[in-house]
Amino acid sequence: MDDAIDKNIGNVKPLAIVDEMRASFLDYAMSVIVSRALPDVRDGLKPVQRRILMTTHDLGLTAKAKHRKSAKITGDVVGNYHPHGDMNVYPAMVRLAQDFSLRYPLIDGQGNFGSIDGDEPAAMRYTEARMTSLAELMLRDIEKETVPFVDNYDNTRKEPRVLPAALPQLLLNGTLGIAVGMASNMPPHNMKEVIDATVAQIDNPEIEMAEIMKFIKGPDFPTAAEIYGVEGIREAYATGRGRVDIRGKAEIVENSKGKNTIIITEIPFQVNKAELVLKIADLVRAKKLDGISDIRDESDREGLRVVIELKKTAYPKKVLNRLFSMTQLQSAFHMNMVALVDGIEPRTLSLKEIIGYFIAHREVVVTKRSEYDLARAKERAHILEGLIKALDNIDEVVAIIRKSKTRNEAADNLMKRFKFSSEQANAILDMRLATLVGLEKDRLEDELKEKKKLIDYLENILANKSELMNVIKEELLHIKENYGDERKTKIFNQGLDGFQAEDLIPSEDVLISITKTNYIKRVTLDEYKAQGRGGKGVIGMTTKEEDTVAFTRIANTHDVILFFTDKGRIFKTKVYEVPAASRQAKGNAIVNVIQLAPEEQVTAVITLNKKVFDKSGYYLIMGTEDGTIKKTEISQYKNVRSTGIRAINLREGDKLRWVAPSSGKDFIVEVTKRGQAIIYPETDVRPMGRSASGVRGIRVRENDGVVSMNVIKATDNYKEADLLVILEKGFGKRTQIGNFPIQKRGGVGIKAANVTGRTGKVVEARTVTNIEGEIVITSTKGHVIKTRLKEIKRLGRVTQGVTVMKLNKDDKVVSVAVVRANMEPVKAALEPSLEIPVKDNKDD
């Protein structure tokens, strides 16, 4: 090889190509990492972003300035700082202006800056831009020698290596950067949360990650959406890497034509809306996604809105789940928190480290700013002292100046006579005649006092680290107060894999309301105040036209809730998963909670402590419209699919209406519309499997039907309990159970109320064991009254009762729920020796 080299052409050294390629590639890789792709942990900016903001600062494009053409800004960036072409700079500037890309935009754009549909921005010659107020905070104090400056690419000017960054930009807006051999993918966060966490870390540098996460709950995306699961967040914050599962916000609603529709109002971060809609359409055309009849994008300036109309035969919840699994309506954000430390070293950082580096940067910036301001303050105080001394000796000063032939001679003479410094002497020579007035001397003395006060303040900051850190905290809290906003992205502790941090759900009693058209909501019981018997009540639910409240139930948020439908199916979920709403709200379509079939209605709801499913000897008693009764062990319903399972095999034309838990030794009470009631032992009904049909409980006469089925405990004093009967026209009464003989199942029963045209038919009949409780009655118009049970009179069997709720002429009672007066979770041990809370639609 040496023989092939002409040694007369200079200093040529043989070099293996492998070594040359390795060295060159490493140089290239580091250049990309440091100079282009990764952000600096201190200001959270990549070089091109930093240079864009510096250029807008050079041009004076503050948040209150007039917008300038993007072409001008881009041209200056390329010409002064960033020699990589405007095709790199303009897209970077566009992204800084997009409110769907950045949680807190740094550029205020005017014109077409692209859209969430992936539309390209207008050409730079058509758009205009300037800084936002937050961008100004990134550059604040840059003129005070707070950050190091280096030569630009052609040594014609200086540029900052890092910005002063008064706010933690890296966490606020996140970043996406792909370098050589590494990448950074950091999500945006909420300003209030980040600043609170930063202040907490300033106060306690040894703060634990768990404490930081009390402030920063997780990412906060500009497109909002919903995060499921906290384990990925916790892992990413601790190690710098983790996965976050995101779902768009989609709700199943019924349109004016009675059809179910899925309304998408939020989508995951970095998802292209137009591509999402196109993907859904492609899946429908390929028949991979059934049940969709139409898709419309109704998004406008008010917000995002994609409407998906469903076929009448579709299962709405099933279609929505398919959308989540087959499209980007559900996606994952893989957090990879890589940033440059000290501007040169790429490192994977934890959340605490990122906050720590920002605090250290601010400590340097505030220190240098204080040193700069202190130097200027001392300089000015020195000048003021000279001016005041000159005014005190103004006649002699004027005489010296008049006698001097040149300015330099005058300055020298003043310095010799009064011991002025050169700066003081020149300031005196520049002094205007107006300074000779008395008020001007007072102004100078006041200014000197202020400067001395400022000097003391700045010296105290530089001498005491605690004062320095207080300044940083105060500035951050001021930014939070002026620019902080509320979180957009909701975080659910339940992960998509089924993980549930149930201990974070508050335990409280709630009222669950369901309408005849299957709208559901939960409301805390505190929203209803007890009223006297005969009151008009308060509005408890705003129903849609021609809809009425079907029934209400009392539950605890930690209970398991079982939904039974008229078709004999059972669904299972947690009470806290029922959408919460205000007292007046209509609620949400129940298909958002369970996968109902078309035309299927929820007819019974009970809540149970989850421990019951692991015990034997506990049953569910089911009653149908035609008087059929079935008893099945609760443990057979422990595993219920999300699509539901069969609870009872119904005869043709029959419907499942009532379900209640039992201990196997209790009594069953059934009441009909015409006021017939029967009480028989539960032992008359043998236990059956899930697919069984049941046996006859009460024989119903013509033009009558069962309206209520209850289970009453077989205690020693069960006959002292009451049967509470509520009739359509607002009448009600209590009748002692002892007035009803125990019969065999299958009979027609005996009178429980005197049903007339004045009272209307029986609506509900409930067994009551504690008259210290309260009753919640709901009418078809949505009025709700809560009154004390003991205010409802105890009367005989064949009586009409008393007025419990005053109703308008066209209104009727539709639903009844009984609760305890102290509002504690309703407990009912199925056996006295076993403390297992079980709740249903009666007082226990």
Topology:
Blueprint (H helix, E strand, L loop, with lengths): L16 H21 L9 H12 L9 E2 H11 L5 H12 L9 E4 L17 E4 L1 H7 L9 E3 L6 E3 L8 H5 L1 E4 L4 E4 L4 H13 L5 H7 L10 E3 L2 H9 L1 E7 L1 E6 L5 E7 L6 H13 L6 E6 L8 E5 L5 H11 L3 E7 L1 E4 L3 E4 L2 H42 L1 H10 L3 H12 L3 H8 L8 H26 L1 H19 L6 E3 L16 E7 L3 E6 L13 E2 L9 E8 L3 E6 L3 E6 L13 E2 L12 E7 L10 E6 L3 E6 L11 E2 L9 E7 L4 E6 L3 E6 L13 E2 L9 E7 L9 E6 L3 E6 L13 E2 L10 E7 L5 E6 L3 E6 L13 E2 L9 E7 L18 E2 L5
Parallel strand pairs: 8-17
Antiparallel strand pairs: 1-3, 2-3, 4-5, 6-7, 8-9, 9-14, 10-11, 11-13, 12-13, 15-16, 18-19, 18-21, 19-24, 20-39, 22-23, 22-25, 23-28, 25-42, 26-27, 26-29, 27-32, 30-31, 30-33, 31-36, 34-35, 34-37, 35-40, 38-39, 38-41
Helix pairs in contact: 2-3, 3-4, 7-8, 7-12, 7-17, 12-15, 12-16, 12-17, 13-14, 14-15, 16-17
